[in-house]
């Protein structure tokens, strides 16, 4: 099985080379964010306030990492259902978000934004949160710590196995 190594933040040039169905190993910085964090980011943008991190070219992983067991830096970090972020994603993609990581299909507005702004949606393995946690080498709280596991964290990941689910040309493994 062959994988393509990519680093986050991800450049538009790298995104343009990837096609639906490609298997990738992602290394670099990834931000976490689920429903509550996305809602707060949208509230900040609505009042012209900066986001808690520079979103340009960045990746957001739809996960709420579990507290770490003794001796580990993070607990289970499996993907959540991406459709829950569909209301927020087109605006964030327009603002510069380039990579989304989660599980499940996306709506037409998200796919249209992915195509228009050169984004990509990567699928993580649902039910394999403990495996994903082994790819995390560091975790730092970034914003909204009152949300607990749904806060925004910056993860340093190494060789996180993912599949290109929707590419920048609209190729989509869910419509195969």
Structural description of this entry:
There is one protein chain. The protein is an alpha/beta fold and 176 residues long. It has a single domain, classed as fumarase. The protein contains five helices and seven strands. It has helices at residues 12-17, 35-46, 89-95, 108-117, 129-133; strands at 4-8, 23-32, 59-61, 99-102, 120-123, 136-143, 152-166. Strands 2-3-4-5-7 form a five-stranded mixed β-barrel. The longest helix is centred in the first third of the chain and has 12 residues, at 35-46.
Regions with pLDDT < 50 over 5+ consecutive residues?
none
Q: Give the ordered list of helices and strands.
A: EHEHEHEHEHEE
Head-to-tail CA distance between termini: 20 Å
Biggest sheet, spatial arrangement of strands: 2-3-4-5-7
**Tertiary shape:** globular
- In CATH terms, what is the fold-level topology? fumarase
Number of beta strands: 7
Identify the CATH homologous superfamily. Answer: Fe-S hydro-lyase, tartrate dehydratase beta-type, catalytic domain
Classify the helix fraction into a percent range: 10-25%
Category from helices, strands and their pairing: alpha/beta
Radius of gyration: 15 Å
**Discrete helix count:** 5
CATH class: Alpha Beta
Lay out the secondary structure.
Layout: E1 4-8, H1 12-17, E2 23-32, H2 35-46, E3 59-61, H3 89-95, E4 99-102, H4 108-117, E5 120-123, H5 129-133, E6 136-143, E7 152-166
Helix pairs in contact: 3-4
Q: Would you kindly provide a brief summary of this structure?
A:
Helix content is 23%, strand content 28%. With 176 residues, it is an alpha/beta fold. It has one domain (4-169): Fe-S hydro-lyase, tartrate dehydratase beta-type, catalytic domain (fumarase, Alpha-Beta Barrel), CATH 3.20.130.10.
């Amino acid at each position: 099985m062959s994988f393509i190594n990519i680093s986050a933040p991800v450049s538009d040039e790298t995104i343009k080379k990837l096609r639906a169905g490609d298997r990738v190993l992602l290394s670099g910085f990834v931000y976490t964010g689920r429903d509550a964090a996305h809602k707060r980011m949208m509230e900040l943008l609505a009042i012209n306030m900066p986001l808690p991190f520079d979103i340009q070219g960045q990746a957001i992983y739809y996960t709420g990492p579990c507290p770490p067991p003794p001796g580990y830096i993070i607990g289970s970090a499996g993907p959540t259902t991406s459709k829950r972020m569909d209301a927020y994603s087109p605006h964030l993609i327009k603002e510069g978000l380039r990579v989304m990581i989660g599980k499940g299909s996306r709506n037409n507005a998200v796919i249209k934004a992915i195509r228009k702004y050169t984004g990509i949606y990567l699928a993580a393995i649902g039910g394999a949160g403990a495996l994903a946690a082994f790819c995390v080498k560091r975790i730092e709280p970034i914003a909204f710590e009152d949300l607990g596991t749904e806060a925004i964290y910056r993860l340093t990941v190494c060789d996180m196995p993912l599949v290109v689910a929707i590419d920048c040309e609209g190729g989509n493994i869910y419509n195969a």
